[in-house]
Amino acid sequence: MLQFSIWKKGLIWALCLLGIVFSTPNLFYSKVEKANDARTLVAAGVVATPDMETDIAAWPEFLPSMLVNLGLDLRGGAHLLVEVAVEDVYADRLDSMWPEVRDALREIKDDVGSVRRQDSNPNELRVKIGTPEGMPKALQVVGDLTRPVVTLTGAGSRDFEVTNDGDILIFTLSEAEMIAMDDRTMQQSLEIIRRRVDEAGTREPTIQRQGADRVLVQVPGIGSAEELLDLIGQTAKLSFLAVVQQTSDPDIRAGSGNVVYPDANQDGIYYVLDRVAVVTGDQLVDAQPTFDQNGRPAVNFRFNPAGGRKFGVYTAENIGSPFAIVLDGKVISAPTIQSHIPGGSGIITGNFTVDESTRLAILLRAGALPAAITVLEQRTVGPELGQDSIDAGKTATVIAFALVLVFMVLSYGLFGIFANIALILNVAMIFSLLSIIGATLTLPGIAGIVLTIGMAVDANVLIFERIREELRGGKGPARAIELGYQKALSAIIDANVTTLIAAVILFAIGSGPVRGFAVTLGLGIITSVFTAIWVTRLMLATWLQARKPKTIEV
Amino acid sequence: MRLKMVPNDTKFDFFSVSKIAITLSTTLVIGTIIAFFTMGLNFGIDFRGGTMIMVETPESVEVSAYRALLNDVVDGDVTVTELSDPAAALTGEAKHIIMVRIEQIGDDAAVQNDLIRLVKTTLSDTFEGIVFLQTDSVGAKVSGELVQAGILAIVLAVGAVLFYIWLRFEWQFSVGAVVALVHDVFITIGIFCITQIEFNLTIIAAILTIVGYSLNDTVVVFDRVRENLRRYKTMELKEVLNLSINETLSRTIMTSVTTLIALLTLYFLGGDVIRGFTFAMIWGVLIGTYSSIFVASVILLRLGVKRDWDKTDNAAGTQFSDIDA
């Protein structure tokens, strides 16, 4: 047990050395972070400023530069878990089917008679035909409108299912299409959220899909989750609609093809609007905050050519009538068209504050979310607390470390020093592993490291106690050490495997900070077993060979 | 000169006090059950939903001042507590940290963003220099899921461990270890009922670590029992257990002390956020050490162990016990 081949010795020391080398950048955290940031910018094509050059020079390129990521609880920031109402999109999809169905059925007018859409729940599209005898033909024609859905499981299914109930055609979305749509909705939502957060210029946001319909957004350094929520919580669906009537009765019968929306700024005012939008926010290419001629905050926008043309034609034809600018189901402004607006640009004047107009411009530029989102969980840690936590964590770790080191030397003398070297290497290895895999260090993670410090000595304690027993049993130094390692091994393995089981389960089931704890605990167990079994044994073996002591005291 | 926590060659008869230990443990477990149903756990917003806002003010502000202010603004139940800072005694600078908790109103899956905003504006308008250290808000949907995940994690961990020990030892060891484990988890939950320290997601992590730690201890004792059973084939089981516990006592105490040193440092200096967590861990280490000696071994003694291992000789224990040898 005490004989090491050269390559084994080399491997052990090499691993220890790597542990030290890859953990050192963390000792110079802010220096390395600045250098890394500056390098990333330069690589992205930004011309280096003198400041950036100093930052880069402070940490030479050939040195390892991987750092442990600090979790939000340590550096401060906001965390939001939101749910996307994926089913919101279904109604729009059915709505968009209607013109196609109408046109197709009109072509066979002789067989089916008049074609009329009926009001229904949002999950289906009901179309009534005038001549019930034409139903088989109608079914066949609209059946051709449906398209196959390409999915892994839903092979052969089509996007719509069409049935009939007497003289009414009923369209519903197929299961496969819903799944495919949910997926598209999530992709789009992620993209839009990412664009909005990026537009706001925040640093290193994490935007991840979680499960079927959730998105996790983490933005370090942001002061409050409310700010973040303002940015991503709004659907920002903008449309320009023709006004049919202004009213104070919210329950007014709008008539087929119309909708009723409230005024965003004044209670008790409602507008009856044509359901079909003249132009929508999808066709915007730019939006900027600005001020109108009266100096009030407003948003300046520009349409793409197609949108601009439509808008121009509409305004030319409807001079003198009002139109409504609708944002998320509320009329933010309903001006009267004064003149033909060519060129496809315009200005929205609502009752905005400067903040609101700036935000609306960001939202319009980034595009509308395909579906509404609800917040399930929000957490913010202020930068003060984050810094406090880092400081407290550092102090606690250093002091705990020192106390354990002293205690080990007092208890085991020289052997305690060996165990301590192993312990220091152990912590270095934990940090280097965390840096290499890019894990996130959270406050519970620091607790995990401190706990590992306490528990890492356990393996050595087991071995040393065993060596003591063997010495008391009259064995010579080398033999006692050898037996100590041999006999303590099964206890070490069993004890650490059980703790590792707990860590793995925590990692699999836990979320956020708990996961951070599981990672450091798990890594700590692995490195502590390595250092206890290999590193201290190698040190002891080397020491034995060099000194050849007649007696030892453990 | 060595610092020795435990003298060499102790010969305590641990089973002479087994009756007391059994009574004590049973009382504690029953006490936990009673406390759980009468006092209940002080669930944090992770598990109950709602909003938690932690603020710090430059000057000390009475808790009642917050209460009066917020009861006017918020419809739901508002709890205001002052966080005591044990580090203040060491560092000399007391912090004035207040935790405000607002109950989840209704079943709304969404969190009450407007409410948070309202509370924040009200507080910053009233108290000058107030700093919002932390704001957490969890909707009912997520909190429900977190409860499930927490329970699942503990059950899975215990199950996995039961299986592992059964593989490595005999089923009697496995039962002993798991009874000790459940005992530890119960009593830890009990102490949280009695102290009413907030029970949140990180406490689940702490309990799982206790599961790991307590096992660690139990397994070390059992490992020695397994070895001694092979060595002293005719010795009475009770003697073997006593001998094994005595032989490993020094290590048990040493490891508990080093872990406690680390944990106590963290408790006093690690900041407010993880204090509940370290409290659970400290308690768990104490209970875990006690239970591996007095609970796990007593159960093992009661169940008895098959002793005719010598027939299978070097593959003693079970077919898997020589994997690492």
Provide key terms for this protein.
heterodimer, A: 554 residues, alpha+beta, Multidrug efflux transporter AcrB transmembrane fold, Gyrase A, domain 2, four-stranded antiparallel sheet, 19 strands, B: 325 residues, Alpha-Beta Plaits, 4 strands, 62% helix
Summarize the structure.
The complex is a heterodimer of chains A (554) and B (325). Chain A is of the alpha+beta class.
Question: What does this 3D model show about the protein?
Answer:
The complex is a heterodimer of chains A (554) and B (325). With 554 residues, chain A is an alpha+beta fold. Chain A folds into three domains: 6-26 and 68-74 and 383-547, Multidrug efflux transporter AcrB transmembrane fold (Up-down Bundle), CATH 1.20.1640; 88-179; 234-378, Gyrase A, domain 2 (2-Layer Sandwich). Chain A has 16 helices and 19 strands. In chain A, strands 9, 10, 11, 12, 15 and 16 form a six-stranded antiparallel β-sheet that branches. In chain A, strands 7-8-2-18 form a four-stranded antiparallel β-sheet. In chain A, a hairpin with a 2-residue loop joins strand 5 (160-165) and strand 6. In chain A, helix 2 crosses helix 3 (50-58), helix 13 crosses helix 16 (513-547) and helix 14 (443-472) packs parallel to helix 16. The two termini of chain A are 19 Å apart. The mean pLDDT of chain A is 85. Chain B is an alpha+beta fold and 325 residues long. Chain B folds into two domains: 14-41 and 143-315, Multidrug efflux transporter AcrB transmembrane fold; 50-138, Alpha-Beta Plaits, CATH 3.30.70. Helix content of chain B is 62%, strand content 9%. Chain B is built from eleven helices and four strands; from the N terminus they run H-H-E-H-E-H-E-H-E-H-H-H-H-H-H. In chain B, helix 3 (63-73) packs across helix 5. The longest helix of chain B has 33 residues, at 237-269. Chain B is elongated, with a radius of gyration of 24 Å. Residues 310-317 of chain B have low confidence and may be disordered. Chains A and B meet through helix 9, strand 18, helix 12, helix 14 and helix 15 of A and helix 5, strand 4, helix 6, helix 8 and helix 9 of B. Strand 18 of chain A pairs antiparallel with strand 4 of chain B, so a sheet runs across the interface.
